[in-house]
């Protein structure tokens, strides 16, 4: 079976997994750790660049980061928090699911188109950079919004007198 098909199937499975995780996450309070850890865990994927087949040119790095940043704007716009029962929760957003699906379709189509001109290893490296360039700004924005609400919660807490 072709690498492009296998990796595209993998992308679909990961997208479905991300949607399920997102729906479950909306039922539990958010924490700074839950916001910060995914990009840290994902950063281990950079080890792929040890192997020459995954290395990309400086122009490809800039292209992938730029596209990732542009995609992150959509995720940032659809990731909102709310305060419920003195805790911070991620608001459910139908738009988020549709955006994930649209991003997935764009990714699969781009991979099919680009696989005819870019080596599969380089393409894998570019898509990892794109994903990392998308998740980091998104999670930074989420963390900043979380901290604002956390500060608001702290200010709204009644002070105890002794």
Q: What secondary-structure arrangement, pairings included, does this model have?
A:
Layout: H1 3-25, H2 32-43, H3 58-78, E1 81-84, E2 87-90, H4 94-114, H5 120-156
Antiparallel strand pairs: 1-2
Could you describe the 3D structure shown?
By secondary structure, this protein is mostly helical. It has one domain (3-153). The chain has five helices and two strands, in the order H-H-H-E-E-H-H. It has helices at 3-25, 32-43, 58-78, 94-114, 120-156; strands spanning 81-84, 87-90. It has a two-stranded antiparallel ribbon. Strand 1 and strand 2 (87-90) form a beta hairpin. Helix 2 packs antiparallel against helix 5 (120-156) and helix 3 (58-78) packs parallel to helix 5 (120-156).
Query: Order of SSEs, N→C?
Result: HHHEEHH
Question: What is the helical fraction, as a range of percent?
Answer: over 70%
**Mean pLDDT, rounded to whole units?**
87
> How many individual domains?
1
- Characterize the largest beta sheet: strand count, sense, and whether it forms a barrel: 2 strands, antiparallel
* Strands, total number: 2
Brief characterization of the structure:
This protein has 162 residues and is mainly alpha-helical. Helix content is 70%, strand content 5%.
Keywords:
162 residues, mainly alpha, 5 helices
């Amino acid at each position: 079976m072709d690498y492009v098909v296998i990796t595209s199937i993998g992308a679909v499975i990961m997208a479905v997994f991300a949607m399920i995780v997102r729906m479950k996450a909306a039922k539990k309070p958010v924490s700074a750790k839950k916001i910060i850890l995914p990009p840290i865990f994902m950063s281990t994927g950079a080890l792929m660049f040890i192997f020459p087949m995954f290395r990309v040119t400086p122009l490809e790095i800039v292209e992938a980061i730029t596209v990732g940043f542009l995609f992150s704007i959509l995720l940032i716009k659809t990731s909102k928090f709310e305060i419920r029962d003195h805790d911070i929760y991620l608001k459910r957003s139908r738009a988020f699911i549709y955006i994930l699906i649209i991003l997935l379709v764009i990714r699969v189509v781009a991979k099919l188109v680009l696989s005819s001109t870019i080596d599969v290893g380089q393409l894998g490296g570019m898509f990892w950079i794109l994903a990392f360039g998308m998740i980091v700004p998104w999670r930074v924005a989420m963390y900043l919004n979380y901290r604002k609400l956390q500060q608001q919660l702290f200010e709204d807490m009644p002070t105890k007198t002794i």
